């Protein structure tokens, strides 16, 4: 959802289902929950977009994800090829812990894969 919204500002259920390799019905159910949680908004023609609350949540998760990538690669020397999946599993951390990790890592501005870490 986030990646599609960067390009056009919107995504469609079909795009998400195809990129996640899941049934469209699965995406529709998840979208309903995200709409009711105030994270996504529905628009005409089947378009969906992040709400300001949803965008803030994505920004927080992306920052944490990149910080965890830095920690895995630079601090514990985890193989780069295996970092992405593990970092996603660990990305939903407390904001206080994320700040401590950021400081401990020397306030990095890029992930090991050269993605910018936005504060």
Automatic annotation (TrEMBL):
Organism expressing this protein natively: Lacticaseibacillus brantae DSM 23927
Protein's cellular compartments: Cytoplasm
A Pfam match: Fe_dep_repress
Subunit structure: Homodimer.
Keyword annotations of the record: Activator, Cytoplasm, DNA-binding, Manganese, Repressor, Transcription, Transcription regulation
Phylogenetic lineage: Bacteria, Bacillati, Bacillota, Bacilli, Lactobacillales
Signal peptide: none
Top-level taxon in the UniProt lineage: Bacteria
PANTHER family listed in its UniProt record: IRON (METAL) DEPENDENT REPRESSOR, DTXR FAMILY (PTHR33238), TRANSCRIPTIONAL REGULATOR MNTR (PTHR33238:SF11)
SUPFAM superfamilies assigned to the protein according to its UniProt record, in alphabetical order: Winged helix' DNA-binding domain
Protein name: Manganese transport regulator
Record family assignment: Belongs to the DtxR/MntR family.
Gene Ontology terms for molecular function: DNA binding; DNA-binding transcription factor activity; protein dimerization activity; transition metal ion binding
Domain HTH dtxR-type positions: 1-51
GO CC, any one term: cytoplasm
């Amino acid at each position: 959802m986030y990646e599609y919204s960067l390009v056009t500002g919107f995504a469609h259920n079909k795009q998400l289902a195809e990129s996640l390799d899941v049934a469209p019905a699965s995406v529709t159910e998840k979208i309903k929950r995200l709409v009711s949680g105030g994270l996504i908004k529905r628009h005409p023609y089947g378009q969906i977009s992040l709400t300001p609350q949803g965008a803030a949540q994505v920004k927080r998760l992306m920052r944490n994800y990149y910080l965890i990538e830095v920690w895995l690669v630079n601090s514990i020397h985890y193989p780069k090829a295996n970092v992405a999946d593990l970092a996603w599993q660990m990305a939903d951390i407390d904001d206080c812990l994320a700040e401590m990790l950021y400081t401990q890592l020397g306030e990095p501005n890029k992930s090991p894969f050269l993605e910018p870490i936005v504060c």
